Amino acid sequence: MNLTNAPRAPETKAAGGEMLDLKDAFGEFMTTFEAFKDSNDERLAQLEGRLGADTVTTEKVERISRALDEQKRTLDNLSLKRARPALGREGGRTLPNEHKEAFDLYMRSGDDRQLRGLDAKAMSYGSGQDGGYLVPDETEAEIGRRLSAFSPIRSIASVRQVSAAVLKKPFTTTGPAVGWVAETAARPQTATPVLAELQFPTMELYAMPAATASLLEDSVVDLDQWIASEVETAFAEQEGTAFVSGNGVNRPKGFLDYNKVAEASWAWGDIGYLTTGVSGGLPASSPSDILIDLVYTLKAGYRQNASWVMNRKTQSSIRKLKDGDGNYLWQPPATAGQRAMLMGFPLVEAEDMPDAAANATPIAFGDFARGYLVVDRTGVRVLRDPYSAKPYVLFYTTKRVGGGVQDFSAIKLLKYGTA
Prior knowledge:
- Helix 1 (22-48) runs antiparallel to helix 2.
- The strands form 3 sheets. This protein has an 8-stranded mixed β-sheet. Strands 1, 2, 5, 6, 14 and 15 form a 6-stranded mixed β-sheet that branches.
- It is an alpha+beta fold and 419 residues long.
- The chain folds into 2 domains: 3-83; 91-172 and 192-311 and 350-419, 2-Layer Sandwich (Major capsid protein gp5 fold), CATH 3.30.2400.10.
- The chain has helices spanning 22-48, 55-83, 98-109, 113-121, 137-150, 152-156, 213-217, 223-245, 288-295, 300-303, 312-318, 368-371; strands at residues 133-134, 158-162, 166-174, 194-201, 203-207, 210-211, 260-262, 271-275, 307-310, 330-331, 341-342, 345-349, 363-366, 372-385, 393-405, 411-415.
């Protein structure tokens, strides 16, 4: 295959505005992966020769690798769009719901009398015009579902809903003393376990989508779905950054912000890491060995549900690695909508992970369901603002989110450095 004919990312169909069929897009992705393997095998064969890899071959491998990234991104977007419900109401009607109807009236016209009536009956429904009103439960659930699909760390972490501002989670630092005794021997009193406490405060996250008067006047448009679709990207992007590298000040604390130590010196409260032995890169000889070592830094109970976390740029370099038998460590998803696999474990793409650089930690591996906790405070509020950006109507939408590491044994890092 010529360099100029390297595969490109699939494009959307222009006719009727329909998206390229997901099955066709997946087929193109698999074809590109086969082309990538052929070109990379050629590059590796040239590296083993005396003259080294040809420049044209190397450029072709990089070009196809970028095409793979673009096609995977398109597949992910197509899968998400297929999962999203249409904004139009089914049959032009919705099931009767007192709160939903009152909220819809407030969104369209600013009439909050029904919501205030509900507020009088149940204080949990709203907080008044100054602080906005709680969205219906169905809308809140839809926002949570979309974020789980769109936010990479949330999709693999544990998620807990709370009604308080802070979640306090106790854990034992020392367990009770135990031992073997004879059948008739005395049983001495065991030591009392020592408890400590992890705290996960929730912080305010906001988005402010704008609507036109024609959108609000269109009774066919489901405004609940519109709010969910408008805030999903804004919320997911902010969450994604915070869950990875947030400093815990007015935002969740990311797992990369905790104290990081070499695995040999690991203690509770730290995130352990292995070093590649090369500043800013993987070892030149048997680079996959360090990945195997990282897998086995986790205890067996954590490995069963473990995932890799890295950004696309790091993934493109890992994609070229082979094991001792010549098999590629990176494998494409089995079907559209699933994740790629690396050494038998799912690979989660988180663009907020750092790029490969000296002393950076661009690769994480662990059981994030046990290792990282996302805390959602119940209630998503919307405040209607028709004045600040006339003729548009702004909807100031807020939710409270917290997060942090809950099990420091469950997440390990790979550091591109020598110490």
